What does this fold into?
Amino acid sequence: MADTEALVSQLNACAEKQDFVGAFDVVKKNVAEIAKQLSPVGVKDALKKTTSDRLLLSFLDGAEFGALPLDKSLVRLEKLMGFAANIPGEAGTKVLNATWGLGKVKKIDAFYKRITVDFRTRKGHQFTYAAACDMLSVAPVDHILVMREVDAAGFEKLLKEKPGDFLKAVIRSNGSSMTMIKLEDYCVANGFVKSVNWKKYWDAARVELKKDACVVIPTKKTEPIVIKAAAEDYGDSWLTTFCHETDPKTILAAVREFVAEGKFKVADDATKAKLEERLSFAVTAARKVDDALYARLACQVASMGFATPAASEMRDYLWERKRYIKAAAMLPAREVGAMITFLAVDDEAKAKLYAAIPDLCFTAVTEVVTQFAGEAACRKAVGDYMKAPKAPATLTTLLVGKFEQFKDWSELPALITILTHAIALGEGRQSGETLKMQNLVRRLFGDKNWLTKMFGWLPEADAVLFFERFQASIAWDPSTHHTTVIRMTKIMPALEAHVVKVEKKKEYARLTSYRSFGLKKQEYLKLINEDMPANVKRIEFAKSYGDLSENAEYQYAKDEQRALMQKQTVMQAELEAVKPADFADATTDEVMPGVTVVCATPAGEKIWHILGEWDNDLELGILSSKTRVAQNLLGKKAGDGFELPDEDGKLQFATLKEIRPLPAEIREWMKLPTGINI
It folds into this structure.
């Protein structure tokens, strides 16, 4: 109690001397003890007695004493005082915001309790005191954005001449730890480096950073780059800390640093024993938790020549339940090869890898095929896969992308066969690893140089087959498909004779049933007579909350207004373009809106009623003329084939058996519902 009374006495003395700074210092240093005697509001009142400065008094009111714990209110108060450090004056306090970057405090309004900040891209932005405390921080003098502001020449020189030092400054400005993804985003967003130039800039910086013992560069982009205060000497202190480490990832990273620094080569037996013990612990900890981490640790143990855990034991674990397949998919690309080398100790092990090619990720397939390209068993396995009716997507992508490396393999089928697999891979809707391969293959087909090489290696007859097979492909993007066909004919003009001229589809009037038109018109009237007026009321009500820049209700209502206005524009245009109809003039000579079709499909006979643009009722078999099935049927005659997408989007072939007039129940469905006018 005596200590508390002494603190209260100190506050009273500060009040008599009007010493706000002294009083604030007393409270900040003794917050726990003072809180026992005074409430947060009591502390605020005590501090108010120490000053008559209107700005400080407004800060005390804005620090939310009583609404927040005392220590948090003191933090907010100190932050507000920091914003005012250079006010008044020619240069305002420099502050940081996560969205707008560096700014300068231009004005602090004690009456309205607002802080005005000028950012490079947003001048005169106002913050309430509460928002300023949450969204702003005083910029450190060594921050990279401050450097650009106060020393533009030095900033540009560092940026252009020392990319490694520049990125270290960026990382230090953001807490000495930053993932590569965030580092790139930060540099691009602030205009330091253009997105297209980032890879080149990072590659140059990486060379410098790898020479810096204080910088730790991770293997994955999602892990942080760390700048340590001092370089590690790997002495007794480091070893003691290492021996108590229990996180497998940290253990692996520490060992790799130790090896990279050349310390392992000169380490004594006792140190090596401790490294082996911790690695063994990490391997055990990673079991059944993280297959990729287990593989990385296993490769590290083997590369250092440690006997524990035994290499055979670690290989057995990775072979078991095909854990190596999952590990390969999760490992960084540069580490997959090490795992493949670790596993492939004999012909039996290699045979397992060859058998797993259809299930391995692209990086792993590439490593297996390139590492063992000189072995007959590998070549035979690859040849057998490519001669099958459906080849693995990863293997197909590897061979067509780097065919020059494999064109002399006698075990492979003819190039036309491999290219046919590639065309099939580019078709349809894919997912996962196959989708990645599809995108790679599609990019190859868009590469003029690649196409030129393919046609150069193909015999003339096979070149025609390749062209005709691609031209007949049914599931490529139409624009890409057309462009590629044209590009092929320019590479090999003789192919012009094999171009199939596609007849332009007949255009039909934009119609829909009276029922669907009436329902759409009713929806439009509700939009303009109910939804939009209600939104205007919400906007007016939200304005009553005050400051529009910080008013979430107002912003939400305005966003809703924009969406409603956009919807009105679209619906109005649609109602003007589409006309109601009863399809009485539809004939059964060919498929058109207003007929019933009977089709033979792989799933059995299907009956659909094709109507107008807005007509749809799957239970009754009614299809909009804009659906993919209807579009593929329009203009067809009885006996014609057409492409029918299945549930996964893949195309199959079906046959149009019969075209009929619409039945009575469908014509009844099309009528305008009672009570609705158009």
Residues 389-502 form one domain.
